[in-house]
Amino acid sequence: MIAAGAVTKELLDGCDIKMTMFHNRQLLLARSNKGAGTLTYEVDEKGVKFSFEAPNTVDGDKALELVRRGDIGGCSFAFTTRYYDDACVERSAKVVNGTTMITYTVKAVTGSYDFTITDNPAYPDTSVEAREFVAGLKAPETPEPPKDNTKMREQLREMRCAANSKLF
Fold first, then answer.
1. What's the maximum distance between 2 C-alpha atoms anywhere in the chain?
2. pLDDT at 123
3. By CB count within 10 A, which of 4, 55, 67, 87 is most buried?
């Protein structure tokens, strides 16, 4: 578990954070290096919110499509802490059906290295959405003005002629 207040904006502003898919650094979507770059974030009482404009790349297009389809629906992040330090991590144990369950509550993150969108989030309460896609769903439909189809019909006629012509 990550405790409220374990991550601060000041901490993030001191890190070089890569925005990735599936924690794969080769699938880079954005970056914030010491608080500046194409990845933006804010910290509130719920946690960290981030945003970025998907790059006009194969990976950016892939990310948008997987989010749009609902295949990617959550987030995770890579971080460090001092697990040996009680000021950073609290441990509690309880026995459930004869098995000892240990819960680690991270009270202080010491570094953050990547935010990621994923189909298998480490934190199930996270979510991801493509804002332009969502805005398009919410926007009222307006009919498009009629277009002049002359050029399109001409191209279609040429394609049909080419398809009907003999190759040999």
1. 81
2. 85
3. 67
Q: What is the C-alpha separation between 73 and 71, in angstroms, rounded?
A: 6
Q: Is 104 helix (H, G, I), strand (E, B) or coil?
A: strand
Distances (CA, A) of 77 to 41, 65, 132: 13, 21, 24
Among 58, 61, 9, 55, smallest CA distance to 31 is for 55
Residue 147 — very low, low, confident or very high, per pLDDT cuts 50/70/90?
low
φ and ψ at 123, to 5 degrees? -120, 100
End-to-end CA distance of the chain: 70
What is the reported pLDDT for 131? 77
Return the CA Rg of the chain: 24
Helices marked H in 50-130 — which ranges? 58-69
The tokens describing 126, both together, are 């996270």
Please give the Cα distance from 96 to 106 (Å, whole number). Answer: 22
**Per residue in 11-66, pLDDT tens?**
999 999 999 999 999 999 999 999 999 999 999 988 999 999 999 999 999 999 99
Q: What is the pTM of this model?
A: 0.73
Cα gap 161→59, rounded to integer Å? 38
Bridge partners of 77, per DSSP, are 115
